[in-house]
Every structure is written in structure tokens, then in C-alpha cells.
Amino acid sequence: MEFTKGHGTGNDFVILPDPDNALDLTPRLVAALCDRRRGIGGDGVLRVVRAAKHPEGTALAGEAEWFMDYWNADGSFAEMCGNGARVFVRYLLATGLAAPAGETLPVATRAGVVRALVEGETIAVEMRRPRMYATAAATLGGLTIPGTAVDVGNPHLVCALPAGLELAALDLTRAPDVDPAIFPAGVNVEFTAPADPVEGSAGHVLMRVHERGSAETLSCGTGACAVGAVALRDAGQDTGTVTVDVPGGRLKVTVTDDSCWLSGPAVLVATGTVNPTALPA
Ligand SMILES: N[C@@H](CCC[C@H](N)C(=O)O)C(=O)O
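Above: query sequence and LBFN2T5F SMILES. Below: predicted holo C-alpha cells.
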């Protein structure tokens, strides 16, 4: 089985080319591929499949040739992955599956069609505008931190740390507790702290994330978009640009009247062959 390994600000993916949807990709196989000791290792899998050939992509095949079939490291599905979409586009361009168009390149996802713009090392993806829909809280280590529930195609809870608490002090080796009535399908939880102003940005925020289905990751693109939207709201703005620093690097989030751009590096690091029968059962 052919694979490529790539990442966006340290959010890493096993990319599987499967244009005709011929692979028997199961939750167990995804989890085995993502196993960091016995497999290739990754926060998730990106299957590269023609939209017309995938049951969840066919309806979008008129708008986008390729469907990003995203899976979390534990073998669960997610509707959207912002960094994954940027890495997916890097892969399409590197392999010649898509031409570096002057305009945006559409990619079908479970959350609809997103559009990518390539600017050298940086790939920006235009997704839906984050929608803040509830107040909620995350509890970890006996501490309950209030936050905002945000829909970016997938669910997020953005929690600003109280003064005096450092991001580095959080134990994210286990999932924060949340109210399942607000998040029946689980949630990605972002913790934030303010950072020094950055020129050209309305806000600058530090973030750590515990991802649904992938545990703590070095970065989460949709999470950064949720964080950006909350930072703008707290600054009294509907639109604008926010710089979000994650453990794996820097992302730029620009919220417009009707969409959200996520921008940052997207890198392919290796290509090879994996023997599925040698992976953990
Ligand atoms: N890391 C991703 C988000 C991946 C999906 C998430 N774990 C979920 O289950 O919703 C990103 O960059 O957006």
C-alpha cells in the first residue's frame, strides 16, 4: 500500500492515494497506520479519492474533482480537518493530480467544498465562517474553565485560561470533561492564552488543543479558526485576522463576512510502501 507522510504545523497525516475508492479502509487499519510505534504514525489519515467515486463525495463531484476522506487516529471520522485540507492540496500538486491553478483549487470534504490558494510554502484554505452557538465548559485536573462552543464544520470548545494559569501547566494526556448534552458527538477542545501583538493581526493568541479522536496534537486548523473567531468577538470585531501560535508553529486565521481563511505551511516529508499485514491487528 502506497503512502505519503505530511504535516501542517506538526499536525501529521498518513496520506493514502486511492483515486478509485478501491482500498478496504477500516477504522482498525486507520488506527494501525496512525500507531506511532507499530505503524507509520499520524494524527489522522487522508484518503485521496475522486469525489465521483466516494459515496460521501459524489454529490460534490460537479464542484471538486477530489474528496478528502479524513479519519482521526482512533479510526473515527471527522467532518473537516483544516490542516489536513492544506496538506491534501500540497499532495495533489506534488503528485500532479491537480495543477497549480492561478485561482483557488476546490476540495470536497464531509463539511462541503473548501477552496485552497497556494502561495509558495504557504497553503491557505477557505472554509465556512465559524459559528459560535453556546457557552460551555471544560474540566480538567479539577479545574472548570468556561468557554464557547464553535461549529467550524466540526465541533470545538474554545476556553481562555484564567489569569495566572499557563498553557504549559495543562495536562492534556487525557480528554477534558465536557457536557455531552452540548457535544453529543464529542468535541475538540482548545485552550488559549493571550500573546504580544503581531503587526497586521487584530489578535495574537497561544493555543493548545485536545482533539476528538486524536488526543493532544501539535496543531489543529479548524481549532485555530474557532479560536480566531472567538478572539475577534472578544475584541468587538466580526471580521479580521488573528495570529494563532500552536506548539507546532504559526497559523494565520482571517474571518470574513461569509468565510474563514486558514493559512500556514504544508509539508510532505516521506513517501513509501506499507505492508498492511505487518501492522498491529
Ligand atoms: N486537526 C484537524 C481537525 C481534525 C478533526 C478533529 N479531530 C475532529 O474530530 O473534529 C484540523 O486541522 O482541523
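The first strand starts at residue 2 and ends at 8.
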